[in-house]
Amino acid sequence: MNIFEQYESEVRGYCRTFPAVFSSAKGAWMTDTGGQRYLDFFAGAGVLNYGHNPERIKQPLIRYLLGDGITHTLDMYSEAKQRFIQRFNDVVLKPRGLDYKYQFPGPTGTNAVEAALKLARKVTGRQTIVNFTNAFHGMTLGALSVTGNGFKRAGAGVPLHHTSAVPFEGYLGDDVDTLEYLEAMLIDNGSGMDIPAAVILETVQAEGGVNVASNEWLRRLREVTEKHGILLIIDDIQVGCGRTGAFFSFEDAGIKPDIVTLSKSLSGYGLPLALVLFKPELDVWAPGEHNGTFRGHCPAFVTATAALDFWQDDSFEKDVRRKEKIVRKHLQEMVDELGVTASVRGRGLIWGVEFEDREIAGKISAACFERSLIIETAGIDDQVLKLLPSLTIEDEDLQKGLDIISESAAAVMNKEVAETE
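The structure corresponding to this sequence follows.
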């Protein structure tokens, strides 16, 4: 028994799938204590959009620390925070015509979701939040209440109230208009649904199985929420910061949410940092009404500011969209060659392959790990093979990883065939 198994809680998860002890990482590669290198198609579940230890982000952090830059300020003013706010305004918000106030909650994504839900309820005076099937928004109680996964919800240990789950696009099949369903529920006094404070959604449900909302569906949802005076919260924690190509995942749809939550790759370096953006008229907080010890981590502000250098022009976004075409083509050809029933879906550099045989994705992930590729699964039954490489991955490494997936999938399918004969 190793020290982790002896002392760490049974709650540990990813280490069971990828049982290596890692010691260093650079770019798209991780290295364990035995010197074995692994190609990373996981990217910290979307935390490492810019890869491991990117120099253009690491060096400013090192200079800041060596200069005794302040590391902790609660929500007091700091030079690091000042620079981040100014840079984020100049590089991200203003060019996109967005005008938002900033709230730095606790350091994780679920903290941002909790703050967004509280704010929506405070602004509107209503209690209900509408969420979508297969959504995942975090592991604290408020975030769990708007999460679809029954296993995660059960871990709360208490009833999760004041939410209404409705079908995401495609959940009931292509022939059912889920937004017609939602609006009917809002209009009909017999539906049992009170007018909610907000609707919260991920434009791409990452943990839920890489379920992609179409731009048309998102535009219609925005129209429905505006028509009924409902706030729209976009959870861009995993699929923001360039994961879908544009900085925000909702940009391609041309919509402007009332509230946006960010975390994961916001710091650009794996340091905890979360942010809630909201329209100025929604800023009804009283001083200290929502707080936290680590609401604004100065070293993370430094790295987040440096990460914005990737977004000074549109070249980075264009490169992600170029790589998107490579991934889409490869995965579709792989499925066709395997002759299996599976669907390929995604945007930018988040992609999923859902297999009709719900055990295949997990077996392929395990086979990939044997071949030194780290790739996870998603979906309620882990039936989706989920690709999440860093956005900065070199073409050679991207192709190498895709080839390993194809090789692993073929090996799994051949074994499946052999076992049935």
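The chain has two domains: 3-54+314-420, 69-311.
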